């Protein structure tokens, strides 16, 4: 679990500069309607409409994090998404949800996976969640918390591994990410972090095998032969 200190920025930030830079480049020329629409969503203070309660992963439960714990964005249009960051909550599911909904906490992940495999989404993948403790990595990644403790091997159940692997496989497919340890990383691997999660008891070999199996299963089901 990260903090928002390093992710805080002025409202007149990158998106405002993108708009200003585009306007300067074209001078008085009329921008194409599609480009104007795309840039308008990047302007500070503008919230792209969302569907209340909608989730990015089928079967997930929506429980929204506090708006203070993430930044509204339009990913991957404004920030490429090329990482999944694996976290451990260092507590129970209910306590993790409580702090992510607390505006004073300053952090939230996109998802929490429970020991029984149930998935809760708290921040939409469009948006930048404050989870990694590194602004660049927050902007480019999807954060997944896992209920439990890094020093308790029993936290990481078969149901959790299987469900989390399905979630990560879906995220990798959505953004065209390779399924490898360069793109699926632990919080401990984020530059500048002082966290150790997911810890020594997280079975990376098992987890990556499950993700690859889910990707292959999804590809097989989507193939023309599978449809006949």
From TrEMBL:
One of its GO terms (molecular function) is N-acetylmuramoyl-L-alanine amidase activity. It catalyses: Hydrolyzes the link between N-acetylmuramoyl residues and L-amino acid residues in certain cell-wall glycopeptides. The keyword Cell wall biogenesis/degradation applies. Its EC number is 3.5.1.28. Keywords: Cell wall biogenesis/degradation, Hydrolase. It comes from the Bacteria. This is N-acetylmuramoyl-L-alanine amidase. It comes from Streptomyces argyrophylli. The lineage of its organism: Bacteria, Bacillati, Actinomycetota, Actinomycetes, Kitasatosporales.
